[in-house]
Specification:
390 residues; 10 helices; 10 strands; 51% helix; 14% strand
């Protein structure tokens, strides 16, 4: 077991170049990522060598401008690459999504001089990024953050602690939101901080139920001095930059969720067609067949939803509501599908000998990161009914 080999997802891609790109990603996933995923996740090994390979092959800058080392790919293609990577190993797929999120501020709001100086190394030069918004006392209420940047001549001095930072301690640069002015969202500014700057340090990684190969840690900024040339955007624009980045980042999480769900479905189908009970495969029993059908339908619906949102983004149209819907639906789908996959495998699904239990543990975090699903419901409702009355 499994007896039935999973079939690659039949993707609708806009160009021959995109089809070649997906073929490249599948080859890397099958050769370099999937075979070591279970062992390395169990050992808590962060696959930096994989991210180096992805950078070298141009897969860390897909949606960004080729002038700076990107690949000029539309979001609908980039997200399907993420899905393929996450299906092989969520640590990798989510890691690429986080790196893309960390690069967003500079790629979208940075000056021409900043982009020329920094983006080539970020997008194709082997660097890996992290995004620093959340803090120990400000998660969903991100506008209440306390990390502060104080002007000192031509420099800024940053002091504070960020929490729940993916790639904390292994990143080469941090995109940091810090308070430079008044309380609330208007007093926040974005900075690009090199990880080797004096005063930057990371705590021990959190001990998590899943994604053990992806370090999540607090990052401390103890009087870190950065030049004003590393301020991204205008003073006080940081919160708007952060929210804009998260709209795109939520689509990345949605695609990763569908990747995990697809991997779980493939495992469940393979097991069900190979496991014999009462003299025939358990996939012959209607109750289980209906379960598999529901899993597949939920995955296809989620994929269509995130791609619809991505196409709005690619067309330059508003997509924040659809991004929140995609993140909500796709991550809830991943949780449901992976739980059902464990059920299909029965007792075997509860053991580490099969990947179903790992998929289920990993799916849970996707309902939490980059805005909990309760926050997504608030975002969607605001688009429908307007802001809450106070």
């Amino acid at each position: 077991m499994p007896d039935r080999a999973p079939q690659p997802v039949d993707r609708q891609l806009p160009t021959d170049e995109a089809r070649d790109l997906i073929s490249l990603v599948r080859d890397i996933a099958q050769r370099e990522i999937a075979p070591k995923a279970a062992e390395e996740e169990d050992a808590g090994h962060f696959p930096r060598e994989v991210f180096t390979l992805l950078s070298r092959t141009g897969l860390l800058g897909l949606p960004y401008d080729s002038e700076y080392g990107g690949a000029d790919q539309p979001y609908e293609v980039y997200l399907q690459v993420l899905e393929e990577l996450a299906a092989a190993r969520l640590t990798v797929g989510l890691g690429v999504s986080v790196h893309t999120l960390a690069s967003y501020a500079l790629a979208t709001y940075g000056s021409k001089e900043q982009q020329v100086e920094h983006l080539p190394a970020m997008l194709g030069g082997g660097l890996l990024g992290a995004y620093c918004l959340s803090e120990p006392s400000s998660g969903s209420d991100a506008a209440s953050l306390r990390t502060r940047a104080v002007r000192d001549g031509e420099d800024w001095v940053i002091t504070g602690t960020k929490a729940w930072i993916t790639h904390g301690g292994v990143a080469d640069f941090y995109t940091v939101m810090a308070r430079t002015g008044e309380e609330g969202p208007r007093g926040i500014t974005a900075f690009l901080v090199p990880a080797d700057a004096e005063g930057v340090s990371a705590a021990a990684p959190e001990k998590k139920m899943g994604m053990k190969g992806s370090p999540t840690a607090q990052v401390h900024f103890d009087g870190v001095r950065v030049p004003d040339a590393r301020r991204v955007g205008d003073e006080g624009q940081g919160f708007a930059i952060a929210l804009s980045a998260l709209d795109s980042g939520r689509l990345g999480i949605a695609a990763c969720a569908i990747g995990v769900a697809q991997a779980a479905l493939d495992e469940a189908v393979g097991y069900a067609t190979g496991r014999l009970q009462f003299g025939r495969p358990i996939a012959d029993f209607q109750g289980l067949r209906f379960m598999l059908a529901d899993m597949a339908t939920q995955i296809e619906a989620g994929r269509a939803l995130y791609l619809a949102a991505a196409r709005l983004r690619d067309a330059g149209r508003p997509f924040a509501k659809q991004a929140a819907m995609a993140k909500l639906h796709c991550t809830d789908t991943a949780m449901k599908v992976t739980t059902d996959a464990v059920q299909v495998l029965g007792g075997y699904g509860y053991t580490a000998d099969f990947p179903a239990e790992r998929y289920m543990r990993e799916a849970k975090v996707l309902q939490i990161v980059e805005g909990t699903n309760q926050i997504q419901r608030m975002v969607i409702a605001r688009h429908l009914a307007g802001p809450e009355t106070r």
